[in-house]
Structure to design on (601 residues):
């Protein structure tokens, strides 16, 4: 049977653009769901994806991908591999599933919005594949932890997390609602597929895959790297969208969308990927530090890509480079201290060898962040592990919803002031962890002002009783589910046996 | 590898050794005048060349010893440096901006 080269029929089969006559453009593409930013309807039809695939090719590839992931899982599921993994690695995997699995389904809703409200047929076609991709990611990352529940009850949080008000989940939801659930198709192509998927997901899905293989967790490594092959394809919706905007003289629109989401994505990854790579991954399995992965995937690979479209580094670039030295160390310290408030069992990851590594990767770590751990270690050795646990709450940023760590950044010599940034809006005071977080809020105060952070909720009387047990109940954490030290304080050195597991 | 030149090329999963090896061989064949940088991280392998990286279907089939459509590399293609253009007979990773 004679076969035409794909390039000779591809455009014809995927292009189904038509002029509207029965309804107006705004009726077919309401601006809330698809902001044209003033680009005329026909100009969007020039949208041309650089990574082309047909439906039959797609189905063929995806079936093969799933066969690969499930066969690895089937073999390993019957082994005791999970039991043999280090506590730190287990913490990283449990944190991952809770933070990511249900968000994948939500990304599927976002892709489906582009599949309907994308402004060119070619785009809607790609987004249809993206919708199927994200459904796959949601299914894989709820199914695989689900069938391992007998080994690890905490895997319940793969499905449960997004149905709670746990503080990290509030932060993730705030970000993802802004990025896709409540976003319009055009902004989403820049913010979800380009900024987030071309840029940041590489850190958690490829960087961690490298560490997973070294940690002996082939199941997880095969899973997340396979997911990333879908991302690498559907993330290509960003490039043609930027091109259309730029050609129409709207490069500033693309730049602004990128700048706002780039910072927001940084904050969440500084939390999740930061502690996973630099503290939870066992020392001997670490391929790079978090900062080195940021350099590789973001500061080089991603910057090269977006500068190639005529975009520039965000205005706060120096602040990003500054935060890369310290922010995730502060977040890790906070997560460890407030460990009852998370669904995994954090490890400290600061034994003597780890501290040497941290000092090498982040010169000055011992003299700054090391000191907090000195104190906690002493308290544990003195038989007072309760002193390493919280009685009060941190201040939380009204933009990223993560703890304000400016005092730690100041004490470590990276900030000029320990004070947070404050904005008055409609008679209310809002607090921010950084200048870009404040800027993100001020760009769209009407969008963000009504949201209450976990601390706002406490102060508003939503959380009763307004103390740690009341907050844990509000966050959906039963006493059995609250995080405890994943190594039973091994990191602190010799401890009198009676004080362990306090 | 100089720091001034932007490196481009595929980042492949470390799960299918034969395809990864074949891609390295094919990229070496298709880009004869440059050094191909292979950074094997176990979980992923970064295969890059300066500025422009070509991969043809013919070279890939030669290296694999079987016929293959280029879209079939997708299950192992976890990412890439640069921009990517996929055609019937070749894939190109490239960057245009000099500075
Ligand atoms: Fe995904
Ligand atoms: Fe995605």
């Amino acid at each position: 049977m004679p076969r035409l080269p794909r390039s000779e029929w591809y455009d014809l089969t995927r292009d189904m653009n038509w002029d509207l006559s029965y309804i107006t453009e705004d009726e077919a593409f309401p601006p809330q769901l698809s902001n044209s930013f003033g680009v005329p309807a026909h100009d969007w039809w020039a949208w041309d994806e650089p990574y082309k695939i047909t439906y039959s090719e797609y189905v063929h590839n995806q079936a093969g991908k799933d066969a690969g992931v499930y066969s690895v899982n089937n073999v390993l599921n019957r082994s005791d591999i999970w039991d043999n993994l280090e506590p730190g690695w287990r913490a990283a995997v449990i944190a991952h599933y809770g933070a990511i699995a249900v968000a994948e389904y939500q990304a599927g809703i976002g892709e489906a919005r582009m599949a309907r409200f994308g402004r060119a047929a070619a785009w809607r076609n790609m987004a249809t594949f993206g919708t199927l991709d994200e459904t796959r990611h949601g299914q894989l990352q709820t199914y695989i932890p689900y069938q391992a529940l007998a080994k690890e009850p905490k895997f319940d949080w793969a499905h449960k997390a997004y149905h709670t008000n746990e503080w990290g989940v509030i932060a993730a939801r705030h970000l993802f609602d802004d990025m896709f659930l409540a976003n319009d198709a055009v902004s989403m192509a820049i913010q979800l597929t380009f900024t987030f998927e071309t840029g940041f997901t590489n850190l958690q899905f490829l960087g961690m895959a490298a560490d997973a293989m070294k940690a002996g967790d082939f199941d997880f490594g095969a899973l997340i790297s396979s997911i990333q092959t879908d991302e690498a394809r559907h993330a290509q919706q960003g490039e043609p969208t930027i091109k259309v905007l730029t050609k129409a003289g709207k490069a500033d629109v693309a730049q602004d969308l990128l700048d706002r989401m780039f910072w927001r994505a940084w904050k969440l990854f500084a939390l999740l990927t930061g502690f996973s790579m630099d503290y939870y991954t066992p020392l001997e399995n670490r391929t790079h530090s978090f900062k080195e992965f940021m350099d590789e995937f973001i500061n080089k690979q991603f910057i090269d890509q977006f500068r190639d479209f005529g975009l520039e580094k965000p205005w706060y670039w120096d602040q990003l480079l500054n935060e890369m030295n310290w922010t995730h160390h502060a977040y890790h310290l906070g997560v460890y201290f407030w460990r009852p408030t998370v669904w995994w069992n954090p490890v400290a990851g600061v034994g003597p060898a780890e501290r040497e590594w941290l000092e090498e990767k982040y010169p000055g770590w011992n003299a700054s962040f090391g000191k907090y751990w000195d104190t906690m270690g002493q308290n544990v050795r003195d038989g007072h592990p309760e002193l390493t646990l919280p009685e009060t709450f941190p201040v939380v940023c009204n933009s990223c919803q993560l703890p304000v760590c400016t005092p730690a950044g100041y004490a470590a010599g990276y900030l000029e002031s320990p004070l947070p940034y404050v904005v008055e809006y409609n008679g209310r005071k809002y607090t921010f962890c950084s200048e870009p977080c404040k800027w993100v809020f001020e760009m769209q105060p009407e969008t963000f002002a009504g949201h209450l952070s976990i601390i706002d909720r406490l102060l508003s009387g939503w959380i009763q009783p307004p103390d740690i047990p009341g907050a844990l109940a509000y966050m959906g954490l039963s006493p059995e589910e609250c995080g405890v030290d994943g190594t039973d304080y091994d990191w602190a050195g010799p401890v009198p046996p009676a004080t362990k597991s306090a | 590898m100089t720091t001034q030149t932007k490196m481009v090329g595929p980042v492949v999963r470390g799960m299918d050794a034969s395809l990864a090896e074949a891609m390295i061989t094919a990229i070496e064949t298709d880009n004869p005048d440059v050094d191909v940088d292979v950074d094997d991280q176990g979980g992923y392998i970064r295969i890059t060349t300066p500025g422009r990286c070509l991969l043809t279907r013919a070279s890939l089939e030669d290296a694999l010893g079987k016929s293959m459509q280029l879209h079939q590399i997708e299950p192992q293609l976890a990412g890439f440096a640069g921009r990517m253009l996929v055609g019937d007979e070749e894939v190109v990773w490239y960057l245009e901006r000099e500075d």
